[in-house]
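Entry 14. Ran structure prediction on the chain below.
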Amino acid sequence: MNKFKFFSIVLLSSIYVGNAQDLNQAVKAIDAEQYESAKSMLKSIIKTKPDDGKSTFLLGNIYLTQSNKDSANIYFQKGITCKEDGNFNYIGLGQLDLDKGDVTNAQVHFDLATKKIRKRDVEEYIYIGRAYMNAEKPDYKNALLVLDKAKAVNETDAQVLLALGDAYYGDKNQNDAYKAYRDAFQADNTLIRAKMQLGVLLKGAKSFDEALKAYNEVIVLSPNYGPVYRELAETYYKWGRNKPSKSEEYMKTAIGYYEKYLSLTDYSLNSRMRHADFLILVRDYAALEAEAKKMAELDKVNPRIFRYLGYSAYENGNIDVAIKSLETFTSNTSNKVIAKDYFYLGLAKIKKGTSADGLSVDPTAFGLGLADIKKAIEMEPLAVEDVNEIGVKLFTKKLYYEAAAIFELGTKNTESKNYLDDNVYYGLSIYYGNTKKDVVPNTVDLQKADAVFVAILAASPAYLDAYIYRARINRLLSNDEMITKNYEDYVNKVSEKGAEELAKPTIKAKLIESYNNMAAVYANTDKPKAIEYFGKTIALDPTNDYATKSLNLLK
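Output, structure tokens:
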């Protein structure tokens, strides 16, 4: 009997140790971003030990990471009833509160999580800090306040230092982030993520080659650590964006590293979605369409698949599929629609209404597409940076009315990197649209274009062609005073640049245009002035037909 009791105690002890080891393995899997494996381990632990609140908390956190809030809430609610470590689940509920913008209730939950902790406990503070960082609207200041409490308890705890590094990094404090990551790795040299984050800091500072060296040091230590390959992929992507001459090469390298990352994590639907998001970044739409079809085989009803099908179908020329997929996705109010969804839907509708030769667009289709693009910009103002490419395509096809409507969107956001460019194209689109054959000049639009070029000169005085276009616009408006003023301003400004500039063929042509037009205006009011300007044209171009004939008439 005594022997049996002893055996039972040993058996129970081994089960407890086994669960602890399994939980540790699950934590390692989470860190390695092997979420499906971690979920499987945690569900197994919960099944064998239903009172283990830490397991339900970690499982709920994975669901939060995967944007499955309903499942996360189920496990957190279950977890707060657990006898062991149930308090951690209040942290998960607190993050759900933060996602809803309910800061007060979040604090109530965080207080419950820390109500009965021991003086030397820091883990709850770490997870609360991460809740602030992982919320939909991250709050790094509050994260730092909470993590400072953990540091006061144990300033050499590697996980505390890692979390502090992440909080400092999010708060754009590079120096303290570097120190925290360095100290975390020194405190525990098995904490590979801390070592990797040193490379992430370099990537953020655009020291891409140094970031690669840092990642390679991580690979030497742990060649199967999946997240480092994701960071390599993102580094090459950003490097390619910053170095156009190497863009194509680096994008291919980035895709290769992302494939490596997937092979070391899992090929679940969530992983495929992360892969799809990356393929959108690197603009590999053929691969995106193939990935979307694979996802549809795994889960025919997941709504986000319609997003990927819509994007890839548009880029690959399957316009009807694009419109159908994106309308299906955006029309469901339960889906988390982003600006890019409406942007692509708008592009698809405009493309649907564009003729095969690209020289005409159905006005109704264009209006519907433009409305969706405006929705996208309302949701994300800097989405306006993407309109420039669309406008330029319309402009080159001489679809000036449509181009002006697109470029006008870009003139309303001074933070856009294309702000000046969009203003120039907006003014040009209106001008050229009003010079088309059989078009009656629109006074209101031309006045808008004139005002745009005034603003352009204020922002960029060196753009002298603005004077030329202001003069041309005022010629269409029959405003003689402004015609001569702007041509005179152009001549004076360009003359300041010296003889070498004046000798350039393009400049010479604009000078001739300026002199002839000023002379034409003065011909009715000041004949000597008109003769003087026509004479300047002849000096530049002795065979100029218009100036020669006009001089003969004036003399």
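The chain has a mean pLDDT of 91. Will compare against last week's run tomorrow.
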